[in-house]
Amino acid sequence: MARSSRQSKILEIIQSKEIETQDDLVRELRALNYDITQATISRDIKELGLIKIMTDDKRYKYAYVDNAEQQVSGKYMLIYKEAIISVKVAQNLVVIKTLKGVANAISSYIDKLNIKNVLGTTFGDETVMVICPTNMDANDVCEKISSMF
């Protein structure tokens, strides 16, 4: 089948199921009559810019960054890790202190992750505020963000 059709199916699968490994993805696609190899999946993951995020049960799954211009490379992730000074909860907010001038990039990245119970983010020059519906949600989101960065 065509690459674009396969890649569309990959996006559909990772949105509906928690896919942890390339092998899991190969199995799902083969169950849908796609004749593919692990090497093909590896290339597709790279081309689609898929990343791994932590699930509620502390496992990692593939997720999609919404377009090619917004992909986050490993180099950027290292920069983000170095740029975050602290991650703390303040009621239903997660407050992230950053180095001067990088809060915008980190805020944008968090928005793209589509983390469950994140209503949105706002930022200043050195601070990102992640808005959650409840205090409990903010604690969960804080833990996820802390573990990623």
Topology:
Layout: H1 3-16, H2 22-31, H3 38-48, E1 51-54, E2 60-63, H4 74-83, E3 84-90, E4 93-98, H5 103-112, E5 120-123, E6 127-131, H6 135-148
Antiparallel strand pairs: 1-2, 3-4, 4-6, 5-6
Keywords:
149 residues; alpha+beta; 4-stranded antiparallel β-sheet; two-stranded antiparallel ribbon; 6 strands; 46% helix; 20% strand
Write up what this structure looks like.
The chain has six helices and six strands, in the order αααββαββαββα. With 149 residues, it is α+β, with helices and mostly antiparallel strands. Helices cover 46% and strands 20% of the residues. β5 (120-123) and β6 form a beta hairpin. The strands form two sheets. The protein has a four-stranded antiparallel sheet with strand order 3-4-6-5. A two-stranded antiparallel sheet has the order 1-2. It is elongated.
- The percent range for helix content is 40-55%
Judged by helices, strands and strand pairing, the structural class is alpha+beta
**Total number of helices:** 6
> Can you summarize the main beta sheet?
4 strands, antiparallel
Q: Average the pLDDT over all residues and give the rounded result.
A: 86
What gyration radius follows from the Cα positions, in whole Å?
17 Å
Strand order of the largest sheet: 3-4-6-5
Quaternary status of these chains?
single chain
Beta-strand percentage range: 15-25%
* SSE succession: HHHEEHEEHEEH
| Basic shape | elongated
Low-confidence stretches: none
DSSP summary, beta strand count: 6
